[in-house]
Specification:
It contains ten helices and no strands. About 70% of the residues lie in helices and about 0% in strands. By secondary structure, it is an all-alpha fold.
């Protein structure tokens, strides 16, 4: 079958675990639907065989409909057959993040970056997880790395800048926070964190 072929060709496969809801500090999620809107067309075009492509498309649709458990289920099934799709892992990480499953979200974002090292949205997603865990230096580094990477839309760049601003604010660096927020607003004028 298809899974035997993956093992024979030596393709790297990521196992994503379903986590239980984690105890989150009360913080607003930086990640929002703006990030996913720009990547939707790319995700579908990067898919493998028809069945997996359908599962991935349905998983993305479930994510957009805010049905995160279904999105996780469908995207996890698609990930068993599709390798090397940063978009698939990005959406899977985003669904886990929206459910508060930080470790599973980080694993999925990391798998996306393993597939495509310059996938800025996934790097920013890892920054979001680090921020929510209170790992401010790590979050800052990841948001800065995301801004140097490929972000598909101006709103995605604004989201990463907002994440950097929130991180700087929490780290008691109000000047850098303000600068990041202003840059986010300049990048995408209709963006409001």
């Amino acid at each position: 079958g298809g899974s035997d072929m993956k093992e024979e060709t030596g393709m790297k496969r990521h196992e994503i675990k379903h986590g239980e809801g984690e105890n989150l500090r009360p913080r607003a999620f930086i990640l929002c639907s703006y990030f996913v809107a720009g990547a939707l067309a790319l995700a579908v075009s990067a898919c493998g065989p028809r069945g997996e492509q359908a599962a991935m498309r349905k998983g993305i649709e479930a994510y957009r409909d805010k049905n995160y458990p279904e999105a996780i289920d469908l995207l996890t099934k698609a990930a068993q057959r599709i390798t090397g799709s940063a978009e698939l892992y990005y959406y899977l990480g985003s669904a886990h993040l929206m459910k508060g499953e930080l470790d599973a979200a980080y694993e999925a974002f990391n798998a996306a970056v393993d597939s495509e090292p310059s996938h800025g949205e996934s790097i920013a997603g890892m920054g979001q997880v680090a921020f929510l865990k209170g790992e401010l230096p790590k979050a800052r580094g990841l948001f800065e790395q995301a801004l140097k990477s490929t972000l598909t839309t101006p709103d995605a760049k604004a989201m990463a800048l907002n994440g950097l601003g929130l991180t700087c604010r929490e780290a008691k660096e109000p000047g850098l926070a303000r600068l990041s927020f202003l840059r986010a607003l300049k990048e995408f004028p209709s963006y409001a964190p």
